[in-house]
């Protein structure tokens, strides 16, 4: 049954925002969405917090010469993130989405304060690990919550808002760190971590005061009061009221195969007609054991892996090295080649995901990334002798490009800092690289293709999978399934970071990027054949859409 928002006279001229009927936007939607986006901002800030101060931290805490400890300071966030992302699914099913949002602020604040006041490397690493638990939890709960409170026509837009909050969190950490590095005194880096507490505090306060509980989660509770609260939340978030609210609840419960229905009669009869039980969430074992869960799980996990293995981490390594070799400093690299196209792509995804749909953006993204990586691989193949030396820095004349550390560009890029500084791509620093004359062919190609690659990644393969995870999974398994995808994303990116240099040593940059070219092409084929269009489809109808897809029907939601 299709559910509409509060009725408006047909002769009325309806206001719209970006083509979306404002009648579907309740007064509580914007405050709730902005509160949740603070979690994404904090996520981005913590991810980038070590970029500027890493050397200062190491020197002040007396481990400046220990590259392994430097790597642990950065990678502890990733380890904690995997744990937090995996564990938060059960927490959000038990406590609710709103309380879980508030809960994620606790490790974010505790980890930031431990890092800010760390007297030694051990406390710093522990603080980064604890902050990572909050980072992983927020990377799971924020898109989950937004998908459940959003009107169908705005889910993609709010996911775009979440991603831009993440990007601006990264940029804030970069700017604060760079500013304090220039103007700060002794121990200036501690202020970077103290500032990380502010968005987390605002998240906790907002989640407890102005954010609305997910009406989808409320419907899974086993009491009549929660069913009524679900209808109230629908009215505040999406302007769905009365009979329409009860129809929405019945539609969701029907999709969950619930053995009851809610009477769509008058308001005064609703109390008698409330169900004695409500749909329950599944356990971890049900994710695999129940056959109906396997199709959405296979789509989610495969899309997660293809997004992670698109080669984004390795492109960052390559960009820093090649751009430095033609005389461009690292700050310019991050701003022009990574930051600017990343922001532009994010706004494109925000504007178009609810207009053109998820599939076109993903198809354009994977095809564009494949083309860019193909050009990079071909350029490296033509002039392998001119490529930077990709090896461990055993020679005293070889130095580490520390600027290659920790410039994350999206939800999926938190693993490459797990490499120790001694493993980062190196160049011969005994040579005046800026006096080598015209840029080598591979550098010229990189100057064009790397920004384009980042643009294609940020408009599709970066943000859209996080939206689809929360659309393709039914309510009964959504929280745990998204947790599994979140943890898998961390693990896959860690594998990328750990295997990149050995792969370059064995096959060269041309062979390595050639492999990622094929993986991006595989992503295009997978999306084209198996990923349905979910634009504007109510969450309760997505499972039926997947079943139709499995039987060879059209992948377009409108068919």
From TrEMBL:
InterPro entries: MFS_dom, MFS_sugar_transport-like, MFS_trans_sf, Myo-inositol_Transporter, Sugar/inositol_transpt, Sugar_transporter_CS
Keyword Ligase: no
Membrane topology: Multi-pass membrane protein
Transmembrane helix in keyword set: yes
Superkingdom in the source lineage: Eukaryota
CDD domains membership: MFS_GLUT_like
Major facilitator superfamily (MFS) profile domain residues: 32-535
Transmembrane segments: 72-92, 99-119, 297-321, 333-352, 361-382, 443-469, 481-501, 507-527
Name of the protein in its database record: Hexose transporter
Species, as recorded: Ostreococcus tauri (Marine green alga)
């Amino acid at each position: 049954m299709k559910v509409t928002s509060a009725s408006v006279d047909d002769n009325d001229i309806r206001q719209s925002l970006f083509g979306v009927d404002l009648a579907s936007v309740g007064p509580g939607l914007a405050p709730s969405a902005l509160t949740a986006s603070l979690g994404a901002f904090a996520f981005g800030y913590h991810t980038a917090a070590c970029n500027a101060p890493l050397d200062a931290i190491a020197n002040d805490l007396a481990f400046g010469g220990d590259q392994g400890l430097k790597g642990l300071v950065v990678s502890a966030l990733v380890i904690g993130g995997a744990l937090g992302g995996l564990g938060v699914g059960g927490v959000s099913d038990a406590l609710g989405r709103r309380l879980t949002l508030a809960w994620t602020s606790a490790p974010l604040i505790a980890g930031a304060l431990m890092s800010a006041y760390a007297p030694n490397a051990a406390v710093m690493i522990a603080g980064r690990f604890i902050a990572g638990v909050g980072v992983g939890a927020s990377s799971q709960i924020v898109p989950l919550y937004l998908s459940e409170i959003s009107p169908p026509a705005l889910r993609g837009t709010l996911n775009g808002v979440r991603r831009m909050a993440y990007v601006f969190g990264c940029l804030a950490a970069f700017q604060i760190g760079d500013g304090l590095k220039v103007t700060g005194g002794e121990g200036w880096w501690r202020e970077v971590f103290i500032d990380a507490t502010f968005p987390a505090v605002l998240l906790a306060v907002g989640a407890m005061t102005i954010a609305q509980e997910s009406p989808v989660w409320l419907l899974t509770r086993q009491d009549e009061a929660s069913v009524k609260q679900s209808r109230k939340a629908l009215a505040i978030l999406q302007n769905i009221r009365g009979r329409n609210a009860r129809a929405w609840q019945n539609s969701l419960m029907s999709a969950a195969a619930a053995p009851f229905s809610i009477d769509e009669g008058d308001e005064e009869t609703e109390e008698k007609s409330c169900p004695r039980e409500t749909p329950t969430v599944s356990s971890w074992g049900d994710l695999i054991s129940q056959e109906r869960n396997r199709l959405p799980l296979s789509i989610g996990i495969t899309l997660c892996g293809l997004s992670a293995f698109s080669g984004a981490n390795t492109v960052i390594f390559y960009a820093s090295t090649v751009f430095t070799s033609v005389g461009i400093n690292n700050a310019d690299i991050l701003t022009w080649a990574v930051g600017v196209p990343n922001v532009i792509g994010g706004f494109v995804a925000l504007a178009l995901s609810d207009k053109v749909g998820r599939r076109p953006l993903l198809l354009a993204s994977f095809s564009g990334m494949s083309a860019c990586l193909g050009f990079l691989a071909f350029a490296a193949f033509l002039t392998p002798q001119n490529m930077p030396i990709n090896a461990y820095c055993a020679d005293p004349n070889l130095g580490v490009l520390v600027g290659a550390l920790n410039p994350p560009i999206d939800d999926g890029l938190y693993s490459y800092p797990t490499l120790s500084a001694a493993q980062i791509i190196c160049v011969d620093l005994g040579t005046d690289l800026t006096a080598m004359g015209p840029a080598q062919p591979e550098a010229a190609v990189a100057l064009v293709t790397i920004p384009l690659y980042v643009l294609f990644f940020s408009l599709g393969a970066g943000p859209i999978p996080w939206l689809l995870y929360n659309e393709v999974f039914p309510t009964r398994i959504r929280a745990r399934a998204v947790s599994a995808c979140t943890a898998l994303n961390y693990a896959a990116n860690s594998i990328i970071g750990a295997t990149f240099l050995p792969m370059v040593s064995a096959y060269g940059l041309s062979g390595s990027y050639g492999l990622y070219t094929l993986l991006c092409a595989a992503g295009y084929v997978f999306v084209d054949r198996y990923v349905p269009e979910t634009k504007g489809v109510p969450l309760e109808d997505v499972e039926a859409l997947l079943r139709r897809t499995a039987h060879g029907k059209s992948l377009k939601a409108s068919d």
